Every structure is written in structure tokens, then in C-alpha cells.
């Protein structure tokens, strides 16, 4: 078994890992190793925005996870895409730039007892790496690496849906990222001139590749962390064992190991290393080096309920793709202008609102598309239609990620436990009714919308909650499985500075440390967290936004 030594080892070249590698290797005296289980992001469909359809479910770019059969989904098992390539899930996700709501971060501050997590304190970390199309302002940065642009398309149908939402009482908004994201409008996206802008492009190329103190291993899967006893009885993470496809290599970290393998990969690696719930580890014959019951617990995800409405007399992607000429026009527009349907994020129009008007803040997010299909990866329907997907931003259901064997090659069991609480089932029913109310507004009447799924025959709370279980699917936002919290929280895995409790030299920096899920797409919040972690690691603690 060969060995190599570095100052910092980062596990996972995804959203967080790419930014951390950039920031930590900026010090030429700091030797940084970045380890990625997947390959380079040189697959052409990674970069064409609509290519997510070919990256999800593709072993070249996706871990190909599946959930356990879900009781709340009437026994269905869902595909659970997670990026397995440079850039991680930022290479296969929906490219939507969304920070969440100020209340999300204020709540984290309360849960951790650390005021540095409050909205006004984390906003500079968002702005530090932001390159916003409008330029610098009080809420946006303009000189960072993370490009945010307007979408390069519009649809008459989506404009009509936006007007219908306003008629239903949802105000128009030009910016979802000001701390309160209530309103309806087109999403901003992480693209540059019609191409996906992933974390590898933003933070690895070209600067990291040109640094002699930076090293990257691809197609290298971490088997376990190396944990050693220290004088006085403490334990320290001193490195990792990595399977390169040919041999097992030990890489040693003189300073820290940073686990950024995501909400599924990070708890799996911790458990394989003897850190986690004792019962799970013993069941698989693993030594319990440090019992942390919260490892793999607290899984939260946004479950989208996909209502489909047939329409007439308006262009949809379904109808455009019915002819060879329509397909040719789409390809030509993208080739010439990098615009049109091939530049589309999976969702173009968004809205944030309340399932109950009495609520003090938005608890629903809509993703609206001028297309319909039974599931991602399946053919579009042969009729004109749009999809209005709605998700509960703050689900109370909690799931788990648990190893199924001591073998690192075996995917863990993922059990989100969707719709397992009465509150989540009620929000599901209420959100379907709200969707119907929006579609019934005058702005859409000329297109004669008719509900194709779930169907107007379903009206009661019980019927709608059950139907939600039939038609809902993940929107790919798993978080929370290595949550941060106060010292007296027995389920907290890391402290407010990302340090794993009871193990020196080890941090977790990815979506797993979120104690509660953000009110929106979590990719950019993960970048903020990585920016904050980098500042802590290099000793800055705070960041000054570049002018």
C-alpha cells in the first residue's frame, strides 16, 4: 500500500470541494489533495444545459442511487441522482441560483448558538464568489467566480402562468435572492453564455491546475478515514484510504481532512470508518471508534408534486418536438445563439408562496415547465401541456442514510420517509388545491387548461395526500445527514465550525451539515458554507467582499 502526505485532504470534488480546493491551495505553502470518485467533467452533456436529461441515470456522471420503498409514496422507490464527476451535483443539477430565505439562516444561528450563521453575517460569503449579471449592489457581488445570469428564453405560456399567479395573489418579483423570496418570476441560473457553469469550471479551472501545491485524484474512491488514538485518549483523523481502481493508497493529512462527499457520501464514509450510530456499525461488524448517533439521521429533502395540465393554442416543448423541423429549429437556435430550449434549466418559471395565508412566511416553491412527461428521462407527452411542480420548503419528515455492509463499494440504504407526518400530508393537499386555483385564473383561460394529473375527481384531503404519494418525486435536494448543532444536542455531528465532534483533524463541509433544509434549491447555499469554512480554516473567520 503506497502512501502520500499533504496538509489538507478534501474528499469530494463537488460543489463544496471545488471551492475549498481553490481557497486552500491559494497558499503556496499549503499542499492540498482533492479526491473525486468520478471522472473529469469532459462529457459534452454536462455543459449543454438540457444535458441534465442525459447525465441523470448515467453511470458516467451519476452515482445511480435509489431510495428504499417509501410508505409515504405508496411503496414506490425513487431514483436519487447525485453527481459523480468533477463539479459533483453542480454538473447535473437544475442550475437554479437560489439562496433561500433569511429566516433559514437565523434559525441555524439559534440551533447552533452561533450568531455568525445569521443572514446578515452569511450574506458576504454569498457575495464573495458571486458574479451577478446586474453587477455589484447591496445584495449581489460582481467579481467572483460563480456566474449568475438571466435565462436565454421566454415562453408565452409561462408569461401567462406568471400573470395567473399574480391574479391569485402572488406578487411579481425581479429577484428571489434578497432574503425573502416570495413572489413569481423567471429563475436566474448558473450559466455563462448559454452553457452550464459548474463548480469545476468556476473554482478548479484554470487556477488550481496551475498550482504546484495542488493535486487531484479522479476515479479514486475513499474506502475509509484513518483514525488514530492520541496521547491522553483523544482521537484524530490523520488521513484516508483510497481505492484507485488498481490499489489501495493511504493519503496522510498533517492538518485536516475535509469531508465534502455530500449528504449521502459523507455519512457513508463516516460509518464505514467506525463513526456513527453504534447499533448500525456493530450490525455490520465494524468497530465503534466513536459513537455519533446523528450520522446518517435527519435526512431532509424537497418532494415535488407534479401536476400536469393540458393546454391548447400555445407553444409547448411537447408540441415543438413532435416534428423533425421543430427539433431542427431548436438545435439550430442553440448552435447559433446558445439560446432556446437547449439552454433551458429543468425549470424556468418559479414562485414562492404560502399553502395557508395565515403562515408568516412562504412555505411552498413552484417549478413550472412548458412541457410534461411521466418522469425525468422518459419521453415527452404527445399533447400540449405544462407541469406545475410544487414542493414543501420546510418538510417535517425526517429520513436516514445507513450503510448496508462494511464494503465501500456498496451503496447505502436511503430512506427519506417522505410524507410521514400529518403536517406534510396536509401541506401536500393544500398545495395541490393552490395549484388548481392559480390555473383557474383568467390569464390562462384562452389556453383552456385541463388537469391531466392528478385529476379533478380527487378533492378530499385524504385523496390529495394519497395522490401526492403517487405522483410526487424528489427534486434532488437531500441535506441534513451530518447536521451541525450545539454541544448539548446529542444528534449533532459537527459544531458550528464544521468540526466533527470527538474527532480532531476532521471537518464535514457539504449539504449534510445543514440542520434544517433551506427554503429553495440548496446548491448555492453549499457554496456559501464552503466559503465560510475556508475562511475559518485559513484563520480569517470573516470575509471582505471584493469591490
The average pLDDT value, as a whole number, equals 94
Structural class: alpha/beta
Sum up the overall morphology in one term: globular
Q: What is the helix tally?
A: 14
How far from one another are the termini?
48 Å
Could you list the spans in which at least 5 consecutive residues all have pLDDT below 50?
A: 541-547
Identify the quaternary structure here: single chain
Structural notes for this entry:
The protein has 547 residues and is α/β, with parallel strands linked by helices. The protein is 25% helix and 20% strand. It has helices spanning 15-24, 44-47, 52-55, 102-112, 119-128, 156-167, 199-204, 262-272, 278-283, 317-320, 324-337, 422-439, 461-471, 523-537; strands at 3-11, 32-35, 65-66, 79-80, 130-132, 146-148, 183-186, 191-192, 195-196, 214-217, 221-229, 235-243, 248-259, 275-276, 290-291, 303-310, 349-353, 364-369, 385-392, 400-402, 413-415, 450-453, 472-474, 506-508. The strands form 7 sheets. Strands 1, 2, 10, 11, 12, 13 and 24 form a 7-stranded mixed beta sheet that branches. Strands 7, 16, 17, 18, 19, 22 and 23 form a 7-stranded antiparallel beta sheet that branches. A two-stranded antiparallel sheet has the order 3-4. The N and C termini lie far apart (48 Å).
